[in-house]
Amino acid sequence: MTAVRSDTVPQQAPAATAPFPTGFLWGAATAAYQVEGAAAEMGRTPSIWDTFSHTPGRTLGGDTGDVAADHFHRYRDDVALMKRLGLQAYRFSVSWSRVQPTGRGPAVERGLDFYRSLVDELLAAGIKPVATLYHWDLPQELEDAGGWPERATAERFADYAAIMARALGDRVDMWTTLNEPWCSAFLGYGSGVHAPGRTEPAAALRAAHHLNLAHGRAAEALRANLPAAAQTSVTLNLHQVRPLTGSEADADAARRIDAVGNRVFTGPMLKGAYPEDLLSDTERIVNWGELIRDGDLAAIAAPIDVLGVNYYTPTIVSTPTSGAGDTRNDGHGSSEHSPWPGSEHVAFHLAEGRPVTAMNWSVKPEGLYDLLMDVSREHPDLPLMVTENGAAFDDAPDADGRVHDPERIAYLRGHLEAVRRAAADGADVRGYFLWSLMDNFEWGYGYAKRFGAVYIDYATQRRTPKSSAHWYGDVIARHALPPVAGPGA
User: Fold this and answer.
1) If 0-12 CB within 10 Å is exposed, 13-18 middle and 19+ buried, where does residue 350 land?
2) 83 has pLDDT over 50
3) Strand pairing report for 231-236 and 306-310
4) What is the pTM of this model?
């Protein structure tokens, strides 16, 4: 995939817009370790994020996901809240170590029972369950055996996929294998800002290959154990890469980041081969000839029904220049180690202008439009779904306990208009999942960043829908963006 632009002109959203496509699916998303809590209950054992967050200095304020948003105990109330907001679908992830504590062998039925109950509650509320098998929480025992850099982890993942398909396949018909494998590989094993916190460039590339293989093996396992009508997907955080200038050097910097940020996954998954430039850029780090075995590429290219696309902000790059600022200003956390093996020299830049989110990410809705159109042109027969999109802001209740977040409403309006426009211009976009349903444990940032449409008071676990939650519910009811009613609306 190529998502490189330097001449995009922002599009102004009209006061009111045409409806979204017929059948367009409206949802919100969470991830198990970020919301569930109950970290040691009913047989669950530590994942790499339990270990990482309990290691001093790894997360802001030493925060952990031990309690998080307590979704494990409050899921019935949370589903009732989803229904009141009008959600049509809920994208959740499964905690692998809650279901299969060692990452091997038979499932723990108590762990499966939680997800059975959650799915039943969703269905009773008329909400479509969308299951993600892996959102970064590898069982610690598998990491102790080498983790994703080891081929055996991909085989264990396929076994786990089969367990989940057999347990929930009669009630869940939309499945995602991996969420953002780029983060798992390159933040977990390259820069070390995510669990397991390793800083080994070769291990990061090996992890990327084995995550690709895990996806292919899991897709095969899902198809073998699900009804024929079930849909299988993978979700990628595709970097919408732009060169800073029109120079050849900056174009090559963008090519490099597109290779290790995007095509390392889209190449084998969607085209059955790793791109030659990626192999060349990284040949000094890893021996691809030994890493890729016979049959791997065919397995990785298992057909999928939908491609999930996550987008938050564009990625602007250049070659280093004298006086340039932080070359790691890539939006992926602070580390002395790069998550870009083979292209460590590339410099990253914030997009010009305001606004920015609490993550210091530039708000550029046109990047989502460009990304959807680029993917659609390259893979015209592959349906797309926006599986994560949202923003963190410094939300706080007012004197009456209400939480007004006009910045988030403005962010969502711009990005939803970008999705609607892409669909109108020919991209086969089937749905949109807001990130996130509720405030939660934001990985290395702990509880300092709030992405939710629902405010969580962590001391009491009280849920308060923010203004954006009600606004999003109105969008769903209209199946269109409402007219602009005033500043930030």
Assistant:
1) middle
2) yes
3) parallel
4) 0.95
